[in-house]
Structure prediction request, 963 residues.
Amino acid sequence: MVVLNNPGNAQFIVNPVLYNLNGKPLAVRPVQVGPRQQLRFDISDWIAESGSDDTFKQGNLILSYDAPDSVMLGAQVTITNAKLRLSFDARDEMPMSFKSSRLEGIWWQPDQASRYDLVLSNMEDSVVSVSISPSGEPSTLDNAGLSIKLAPHETRVLDLTDKTMPSAKRVKANKAAGLSISHSAAPGAVLAYGMLSKNRKGFSSQFTFEDPATRSSQTLAATHMLIGKPDLPGFPAGTSFTSKAIIRNAGDEPINVIPKVSFISHHNPTTVSLETRELRAQQVEVLDVGAELKRAGFRGPFAGAGMTLDSTGKPGSLIAHVMSFDGAGNQVFNVPVKDIGVSMNRLSGSHPWTLEGDTRSLIHVRNTTDETARFTIQLDYDGGSYALPMQELEPQQEVAVDVGQLRNSQTKDSIGRVIPKDVMSGQATWIEHGPQALIGRAEVFSVKNAVASSFSCPVGCCPAGDNRTFVFPSGFMKGVPGDTGLMQLMLIRRQDCNGQEFGPFNVTSSSTWSSSDSSIVTLGAPTSNGCLMTCMSGGQATVHIDFEGVCVQVDPFTDNCEQLSCMLPADCDVFVQIPSKVRFVDTPPRAPDGKGPVIEINDGDVRDTAGNVVKQHQCGVYRNLAYELVDQVGEPITDAFTVAESFDNYQGPDSAPDAVTVNILAGHIIGDTQYFGRAFPACLGSNDHQSFKQHFSVTINGMSYNLSTVVTISEGKFSGTAKVDVDITTP
Amino acid sequence: MKSIRKLIALAAIAALASVALGQSVQSSTDPSSQQILALQVTMSFADRVTIPYALMVVFAKAHVPAGLVTISSCGEEVAHQLNPSGTSLQAALDSIISAEPSNRWQIADGVVNFLPAQNEPALLNVRIAHFELENVKSPQYAIDKLLSLREVQRALVELKLSQVPTQVGLTDLKRSGSEADDPSLGFNVRCENVTLREALNAMVRAHGYAVWAYTERRCKGRDEFRIESVVR
Prediction:
């Protein structure tokens, strides 16, 4: 299975060419890769479609494409044998990223039953001479070395444990050694990796070979090891993992290595420095991380465990291989080890993920520094994006984002988006915030099939910088005193050097919030859920938000990425409304312009402004009215409120109407039906009428406001004429 | 002298008993009653207010179904300065009772009633054989329907009570152009062999937070009443 991952916003065509073991080429159909797209292909399908012979069982693959940047394409081949429960990841390499014709790796022989295959591929069109030199302690290795010639594009798989091999010198059981490879061609002409396997147990692990000349720091880091009880879901009860770190001094001088293991145990982030290792030239040592922690007094449980290896000596002297495996040797997780000095490893990453079948995908990001670090993660899929709030990582700590859990729980992101339940695959992009040193990878695994892959695709170019900020929800905010439900988020969008935008990311809790007038609006403590605003009194205030962002620019002379601190502000205006008056509001058909027609009934129904029958068999006169509540500047108030009416100056045959209190829902208005009459068969006399003044008060958030509005009402029969006169005498 | 002292003592016991009647419900272990009494209502009146007005405001703020009974005679209603000791509905009710101790309150099936401590209006005890309404939009409409029942009309004649015409008044209204009326917004009420007060309680309970108010005025030999939905 080959995965093609495009972290950029360009679209391009990839032309794959497969080579069999002998170097025979097979061009397969070109593939179009869209922006931020990740595609998966079964290589056997490619071969079948091309109608090739059956010699294409093993070999190598070259992907050619035209794109603005070489790192626009990340590719990884996962070789899986479901029957034997074996899985190997072969990562893509760029020829231009090699600086020497030397490759250094590790050869580990955990027991007599394990097998170690060294895979060598010639990526060139000419013959290459390759020299393979095992190295290590005399007690672990009888070293004779091996030289071979690789034909153009030939791939050779050498079983280093095969006793019939010409060199026939094996690493002894439970011992590890180094493997040095040098070749006669240009840097990058030969690729190599090791495949450690135990067929009967389903144990498999791939060993990378790297060019030490490409290394730039003395520190290696690995994120997410499994130690003891797994912190991943889905494993049977009782499953326990062992993590091994194999470290090798590939240089000619002695070095010291300080292994640091960080983890969370019982909710406490902890970093433990293990015993310093002194490695002579070419010495290899196998560390059982769990046993080392136990010796240091830590028994777990261990969650979010990662490792940092600080060394002395030249960059590239220390190489390491880290892996976690269960007691049965069936579940094996390779833990990529990265040089944190290589910017491509630490600025950002774009990793493909999948949730097909029982496959789970977790994105791990680790802070390899001793200072607090921040980063953002965005998940892209066909047709949408999902952005998590900006996250903070304590020194040496890591975080895991479970993509399936986010999808299945339909957790909303900052602006209310969810990952649709039918989405099965996509891309995860993490970007550090500031010049830090984070590493990340996607861990894609199936417990049922006992296979796991790790994806660590770089993004290339510079990490995305903070491009613009905005508040959400946008626009003018309104409230009334006592409102505590106004919630505002501060969001940023980030943009990389290719113009590609990410986000919006929630940075509310990382921003500084202030109110221009705290007598009008006060602010609560900002959290990732938002900053709570409380309306205190009438008027307008501006909420100012500052976010200390990171702006990125490329040095024109060195092409290096420069990350500079930059202040990104945003403002939000809040107007606090004071309920002040009511006014007629157009409410057809029963109250156009706020006042309906005068309706005289004789043994008829009284219908209110909404048209509901509220009295039957009545004889009298009525009129429907509609009012809206407005604030001090005449803007409607849309909060829910309680309105109470009261009456005075009553003149008429009855007594003043009872005061009534009505709950008005948010966004609703006040209906009023002025009726004067009698239950049929009684009726009004020809001069029966009443008049009074109507007053209103409203209550919102427990606070009462007497409105200025006075309505004068005169209704009934006037010399036989039915009237309902309604006038707002005091606005 | 002894007997006088004794009478005073008896009066005190009677007063305590009347308060205890309200408090016996107040101290009910019924969890729903306790929740209702714990509802937060900020009762703050700058001026003196009448008890019916204070109750209307309190029940509206508590958003709880309720009913209140007021019996008055000739003259203006008395206004009080109310200062509750707390912010709960119970504190508000206690404050009102202390202003007019001839009343009591009780909670029955989630409906708060404010009643005279003694001599509950006879009309409210009239028995109703059957009352049923569906999809009612207006509590006042349901009250009018109840009052038009034969049992009630017969009782009005027997009790020589005359009914004061009621208004329609204010309603909650959707803004023009907003979404159509939800037909499910109406409420249903059905009860059998209950008193008029129990039927009124069933109606406000079905509505959710409406408040009925029974006002009886006995003046110059004329007894008149009205029942209105004062919170809707």
